[in-house]
Every structure is written in C-alpha cells, then in structure tokens.
Amino acid sequence: MKLLLLLFPFLLLADLSVGQKKQGNTPPSAEAEGAISPCPLCKFPGRAALFAGTATRCRPDCGKLCCKGTSVVLVVQGITDANRSSQITGALSALEGVMPVSTSPKSGLVKVTYAPEKVTRGTLRSVIRGCGFKITGEQKTFAIEGLTSRSLAERVEEAILREPGIAAIEAVCSVSQRAVVVFDPEQTTTRKITAAINSTPCRVINP
Fold it and tell me: Where in the sequence is the domain holding 188, given as residue range(s)?
C-alpha cells in the first residue's frame, strides 16, 4: 500500500505529460483554418449573399434591359427539343437590345425582353421564322381587379372572345384574378383586349 502511494505522484505526472503531447498534435480547428484560408465566397459579397439567399438579382433602380425592357411571350410551333430551343436563343441573342429569357420545348413559349427603341416585335418574329419555326400568336397575362367570382370570369371571357384575333383563352381565374390570352398581333393588340376586359365590371391592372 505504501508502495502505491509513493508511485501515485509519478503516475499522475506521466499521464499529464501524455495528455499535453496529444493536445499538441491536435489539428487546428475550422476557425483557425478559416483565418488562414478564407472562404472564396467572402471575396465576393454579392455571390456570398446570393448563396445565403439574401440578394436579389437586380437593384430596385436597375436600368438594364432585364428590368427596363419590354417583355413579350411568343407561341411557337416546332420547338421539339433543346437543340431547337438553343437555335432560337442564339438567333435572338445576336440582336442588339434583345435578351432571351426562356424558350420551352414543352410549352412552345418563347419569352423575350427587348428594347423597343432598338428592335420591334416584328423583327423578333421575323428572326424566329427565319430559323424555320411558325409563330401562332402572342401570349399575354392580364392582372384583373374585381375578378372575384365565376360569373364575372365568364363575363370577362365573353368580352375577350368578342375581340377579333383571339386565338385562345388559356384561363380566366377568379382565384388568382388573372386572364391568360393567346392572340394574333396582326389582328388585335393588348390595348384592345384591355379595353374589352374594362368593358365589364372588372378592370385591368397595369403592370
């Protein structure tokens, strides 16, 4: 027993020595490594905010084409796959003042933002037709104030159908208060369709 008491201090010192060696071999923490090698995203605050989900695509006062341009949705036949879609996107991108937004083989819709002072919708249609596609119309979504019931939706639909050049009405919804209309731009315009909707108790909300 006396022998164990005498050896205890030596055993305790040996254990502490081993613990210190292990602590000395411990790899640096993630924070220490971060201090030496900062995250690449930290060099680009905009990208870091984007990944964090706190950044918007553009500033509220953005004056670029993406925010200040005019948008149009064309209904196009013949977009059978991604290659055909890329053909349209490439042809439109070559035009000054034009920014293709989306080209969908599934829906056949081509959404484009453009600068009216540099290019016309007729030019956009001509370029797409030049690629071998057929344009059957334009699609427009109207936000409608006062469209609160099915009976009002029916009145709005009837008013739109009386306008020449209406190819199809995709939806007139009293829940979302939206009307989605496909029309022939050579026979009618969005202003005329707006006037038709406004002839009912409902009113189109200008974007």
Answer: 139-204
